[in-house]
Please model this.
Amino acid sequence: MRPKALFLIALICCMTSCIKDTDFEQADQITLSPEYELDLVYFTVDPTMFTAVGELGEAFRVSDTTNIRFLDDSFIQESLVRAEVFFKLTNSIPRDFQLEVEFMTLNNEVQYQFDIPIAAGTVAAPVITEHLEVFDTAAELGPLTSSSRVVISVSSPETVETLDGTLNLQSKSAYFLEF
Amino acid sequence: MRNLLAFLTVLLMGAGMLAQNKTIVFGYEDIPQSLLVNPAADMPQDFHAGLPGLSQVYLHGGSSGVSAFDIFQESSTDINQRITEAIAGMNFRDFFTVNQQLEILSAGWRNNKGDYWSAGLYQELDVLAYFPEDLADLAWEGNRNYIGRSFDLGQLSVTSEVLMVYHVGISRQFNKNLRVGARAKLYSNIAHASSTGNQGTFVTTENPGTVNIYEHIVTNADLEVRTSGIDAISEAGSPGKEVAKRAMLGGNLGVGVDLGISYDWNRNWTFDASILDLGFVYHSNDVKRYTARGDYVLNGIEFIFPPLSDGQRTVDYYRRLTDDLDEAFPRDTLSTAYLQMRPTKVNAAISYGFGTFGEGEDCNCLNKESTRWRERLGLQFFSVIRPRRPHMALSAFYYRRLTGFLSAKIAYTVDEYSASNLGAGFAADIGPVNFYFTVDNILRYGNVARAKNVSLQLGLNLKLSRE
Model:
């Protein structure tokens, strides 16, 4: 091909260059949907830490509270489409317990609550209880993202003070976001 | 966020992968601006002056790993799926780049000794961002499916600057075979932001025997973002005036030099080489350096069930955790000065000149006293020093003077990512008016969206000779 012809073709290509078969409007459909897992709380309690509660001392309980300030963040409120909270309890105390989890506002207004029955174990043969709490409807996610505090209580209707063993809790949370 | 992503994607996927690889202009002495690519260029005219603001308009941007078409193609598949595939197809060696130059003023003249002097000023924007593969995975997918994977925080490597360059250069014929050139540059930096040399890892592990289910571990983190000029411009009552002030030596200054040679091996063979922007900018004005360093292991919040009396507040675990985080990662904002090296470029070419000007011509070149052949065939090498490593390209080119007033050059460039980059350009001298136009990646011009890199340069000059 003669150089002049090549030059002409190149020039035409440049002058007629265009963007084809693309749709930049699709940018509106771009959605990030990351899934993050994060440790939550953990503890180990022994029978001496339980205290009597109620006017008649009808139950024995340990309880603690922490703020989780990111839960009611506006970004989380708008982006969270599913959440999971997973608890793993290892009980070597020969007593059944009830674990109560409460999500509440900073004004201590309970938004979401659930219980986990914990089976008794022994020092020689601890019993593991696992529980997965799933939040995937608006009715469940709303209360969760209105909360910024978690209260966890372990209780038994009978005294445990004289028993051996420990109760260990490990937990993690998963956040499924779309934004 | 999605708009930002789209903007960045469109911005960064358009043009030449190797910023400032002016393949066509290098050695193209019909274009006066070839002096900016090799200060030893042998100008055929005795005087030139650029049309202010229009003598060199240069745009260049590119992506080594993905094209706009890869993401925004009209397709039945979901765009998010295509982005996922694009992220999976790239690694931390991939990068996005934008480079733009606008020559404000330029002129050149030959003195009585035959030296060709040139001077001028141009504005330049340079942006380079390496693809932070690990951080992109973390942002796009999260850590849930990557328990045990170590994310490299050091993959964050971004640099951007906008500056004005004042320069003066000389091209001198030392002897029959050797021509050398040099250009002194004064950089007037308008704004700069970079984050390079980062290090550290983040991993979420799940091992038996730990206090909680996971451990989130940040190890040896050492992150820094350096900026200058940004606060001054954004907080100025009149940002335009502040930009103008900083462009006119009122910001951070630096110096640099371009050096070049052109050596005629024999009558046909010529070797040209240049090193550009061998220099630095010293940032001491309106400097902000944001740093974060440290190690941290997060296990969650440990309940200790403190015995509390009525009305006593419980332990503020969350505050304690954030305090621990702040202590483990001391974050500072410093205003200490820093030195920024300019991205030094190296060009080199070996070429063979040949060809008769016309049928029956006795002369086999346009000017027998010089080696200004009508045709030239050669190989070019380009390299630019970047934060991680030099980026390199190799081109084969063919130059031809088509008529007395029109010449053209084509180049085929290969590099580590692309082997099909055909560039072309022409220069026309219509009377004293010189017009030139060059483009890269011409094979993709049928649909620019498919190109991973595109660049173009054009300009208008006035060229005069004594004869």
